Amino acid sequence: MDKIVNNRIKLEFPSKGENVALARITIAALVSQQELTLNDLEEIKVAVSEAVSNAVIHGYRHQSDGLVTVIGILQGEKLIIEIIDEGVGIPDIEKAMEPAFSTDPERTGLGFVFMQSFMDEVKVESKVNKGTKVTLVKVLSNENKNIAVS
Description:
There is one protein chain. The protein has helices at residues 19-31, 38-59, 93-96, 111-118, and strands spanning 7-14, 67-75, 78-85, 121-127, 131-139. The protein is α+β, with helices and mostly antiparallel strands. The protein has a single domain, classed as Histidine kinase-like ATPase, C-terminal domain (Heat Shock Protein 90). It has a 5-stranded antiparallel beta sheet with strand order 1-2-3-5-4, with helices on one face.
């Protein structure tokens, strides 16, 4: 059975740091169609910012000629966000998700920690020299917070 999709957006942009805000605002506009707290909205925006920043900084190593794709899906009581890059990939996802680990000495290495803290599910798929897809899921209904997200 197909799941009901309430709304969906797809945004593609060059891997430039200034586009992090564009992705953040676009997802905020999409999710604002639902009833949620300001705290939930802020957490979603931070998680999106971290995932897109990772694509720009780590995926493309600050090169602005890469392509970042952000897909936002409102599906029933869930928000599903996919952030996709075709950058260098992550050789060891488990290591990359450790707190304070970063391939950039200027960074704190807390991006995945924030994503995991603020979202109900974080899934990372990556292939070296092929790119990375980060999927973020947020259950939007307080009534359904205890339901497992698939």
